[in-house]
Amino acid sequence: MIFPVTYFSDNSLTGPLNWIYSPPGDMNLMLYYASFRVGKTLPSVEPGQPHELYYIGPTFYGNTTNIVAVYFEPPKCFRVLDPEVEENNRLLPPALRDVAKYTNQNVILFEKAYQLPNQFYGSEPEKDWCYYFSQAELARQKKDWGEVVRIADLAFALGDTPNDPVERFAYIEGYSHVNNWEKAVELSQASYRVSKNYVGPMLCALWSRIERETERSTEQSAVINQVRGEFNCSP
After folding, report:
1. How far apart are CA 107 and CA 87, in angstroms?
2. Quick one: DSSP state of residue 51?
3. Residue at 4 is within a domain
4. How far apart are CA 80 and CA 158, in angstroms?
5. Domain total for the chain?
């Protein structure tokens, strides 16, 4: 019988993380809680800092250039932080917010799908809002916008709603890239209503990237001007 983990630490999760993602005998990954480790075990998160830690057998050798910051606070979905959008995300714990801008999504590997050990983790859970969000976020990182939109349609068909306004952001970006500006604006407005002061600056950062990475057109310019005005974005 498999029971859910109730009490855990970053140390206790580092082992399983490497069982799944590192070759046997290697330790290529280290999980740190930002609130406990930054400035102590990990002296600095500034890029380019080598880091070494003996871990009861193998030794971890890493570099702060390869940090991937993640956030998980149920019922919110597990997610990789977006450095361009979330540097000033005041919905994050302060210690994690300070690390967000250094996360390097370029080290995420897409080529191989890893299998969780069934004897420890059991079967795949039901495909709920967070399942689809994680798949959409992965497609966003690949810039596979058609896949993002395909997943969005499945996710919203559930009739569920996100527990964090940022969980709409991948879909906002996806709909923008396929020129469904109306849906992108609609989802942006829904996120903005959660907290204008907290979510507004993140939406401005997101739409700045959308403006930069989507094809220029009369419709694109009109939508950009609209969201800048609605969300009080700087020119």
Report:
1. 19
2. E
3. no
4. 23
5. 2
Residue in 144, 17, 12, 143 with CA at minimum distance from that of residue 70: 17
Question: What string of pLDDT tens digits covers the 235 residues of the chain?
Answer: 444 556 568 888 888 888 888 888 889 999 998 888 888 888 889 999 999 988 777 889 999 999 999 999 999 999 999 999 999 899 999 999 999 999 999 998 887 777 777 777 777 778 999 999 999 999 999 999 999 999 999 999 999 989 999 999 999 999 999 999 999 999 999 999 999 999 999 999 999 999 999 999 999 999 999 999 999 998 7
> Is the whole-model pTM more than 0.70?
yes
* One domain for residues 213 and 135: yes
Residue 153 in any domain: the answer is yes
Any domain includes 128: yes
168 lies in which domain range? 120-230
- Inside any domain, residue 115: no
Is residue 63 within 8 Å of residue 140, measured between CB atoms?
no
Q: Are 52 and 61 in contact (CB under 8 A)?
A: yes
